[in-house]
Amino acid sequence: MKKNSKAIFQTLSDYIFPRNCYGCEVRLEFYEKHLCLNCQIQLPLTLFHQTTENPLFQKLSNRFPTESATSLFYFEKEGVLAHLIHLFKYNGVKEIGVFLGSWLGDHLKESAMTADLDAIVPVPLHTVKKRKRGFNQSELIAKALSKKTKLPPTF
Ligand SMILES: [Zn+2]
Questions:
Q1: Which of 57, 72, 85, 125 fits as disulfide partner to 136, beta carbons 3.0 to 4.6 Å?
Q2: How far is the CA of 34 from the centre of ligand 1 (A)?
Q3: For residue 67, how far is its CA from the centre of ligand 1 (angstroms)?
Q4: pTM for the full model?
């Protein structure tokens, strides 16, 4: 489908099934997905993937052998990011995990950080928690990350 056809289809689809931003609930434009641009620019990107000697790497490498480390965002107790994580983990809005994993994948696929990686390994979730939540949030992020980076998943 061509770009213009996709835009027209999304506009028609939005007219019938309006989509709202998960951050502020404003109606999304046809070119926005899950978050409006205003909410996206509020998210505290780390850009840690641009350098191997980033604060997360330094912190982790002081505790155990670490090749590299990154994080898409800085942690925030409140705000759009905290709201998204709450919706994802506790309200089961799985598409937020896919969205965030894809976003991280967009950053990492261009990064030297992934050049020597063999696979994507999600953080395991205890069986009881997985049963209670219904899914492992880390697996959803890892699947989207795997799709973007072309690194095979291990699950
Ligand atoms: Zn918004």
A1: 125
A2: 8
A3: 36
A4: 0.86
